[in-house]
């Protein structure tokens, strides 16, 4: 017998289900007033450094249907590439947002500060990106992905450069539709399936 | 903030993404492999929430919907446990959110049309921060089972949904707690998206008479393990070394 490793197993995930909003965005479910406000309504406060960017999109299932019950969370650095809590980070950027696909249209909107490039411990720079985490009925473990920006230099990004099929890189790049406006659609399955991550 | 790189997720403990018995997963599971890379600062940092977020009744679902004016109807229970990482260390001051149906299996959600009535004194959500040892507790009523449109006659076991943050965004987890002895657990296709019996058992909270309060409430214990952190042995080395 060898020695025993003492790592515990992570608790298994389960789907967030169709009523995830009750716990996470109560006012969306009709539980207005139980908390003073929903958590993560905005990832920044007025006066934060940097450019405001608005990203809209939908989460499409394998049939092309825009899901009406998805919940998304985002996490990102400030305009200088520093995460909240790191030395020198902009105190007006909380970095975290929580938002839902609209119950009628399936469209979500994230209004945020455009993040700066982020340094990796090995000295490489990551292009500006926003981490996304997607849960919903039918999704058994939350899906991780990233939003990159079409009008940034993404050529040296270590994560994008790991994608073997180069045409798939585009699934992680938000398209600019107007100044400060971007479109980012997520496709769970199919020919243009979004790249999902295991980080 | 995390103090070392996150260890990769062991996906074998988790449910399979696509399981035909849980019909909605068929069109909502990616078909292509996940792209793997070492965790980055985005996964090793995460949102932190302070005690000022939490109201005095936020972890008391029996009273929080009516602001203490009238209690919810149902079996009064304490649900408590510890949030820890894979090394067994408690995760202090992290946000735990729960949501659930009422005693009759009805959710207070605009989309739930099950015929069981709403309880005017029950909302169904709660939240708390873990203490310095990673412990949390909620007072609530035991949720009822409810039917759902999947196969011809599928019923969810009694369950409470849990959402936990940890200290890094890569530790983010949503799961469900089930109750010891519920015969519906073995018939539920959502439970059985997890293919290991031993891992399913880890979602079943035992009755905990040691924490029950006589003439007041029963108790169930539910511990949660989040992804752990490697020690930082070598840093700043070229990739592939």
Notable traits:
heterodimer, A: nine-stranded mixed sheet, 2 helices, 29% strand, B: 241 residues, mainly beta, four-stranded mixed sheet, 12 strands, globular
Query: Compute the gyration radius of chain A: what is it?
Result: 18 Å
The count of helical stretches of chain B stands at: 3
Choose one word for the global shape of chain A: globular
Structural class of chain A: mainly beta
The computed structural class of chain B is: mainly beta
Overall geometric form of chain B:
globular
Strand content of chain A: 25-35%
Summarize the biggest pleated sheet of chain A. Answer: 9 strands, mixed
Greatest chain-chain interface?
Answer: A-B, 81 and 90 residues
Helix content of chain A: under 10%
Residues in helices of chain B, as a percent range: under 10%
Structure description:
The complex is a heterodimer of chains A (199) and B (241). Chain A is mostly beta strands and 199 residues long. Chain A is 5% helix and 29% strand. In chain A, strand 9 and strand 10 form a beta hairpin. Chain A is globular and about 45 Å long. The two termini of chain A are 32 Å apart. With 241 residues, chain B is mainly beta. Chain B has helices at residues 24-28, 41-44, 197-201, and strands at 35-36, 76-85, 95-99, 125-129, 135-141, 146-148, 154-156, 159-164, 173-179, 204-205, 218-221, 224-226. The two termini of chain B are 27 Å apart. The interface between A and B is large, with 81 and 90 residues. Strand 12 of chain A pairs parallel with strand 1 (35-36) of chain B, so a sheet runs across the interface.
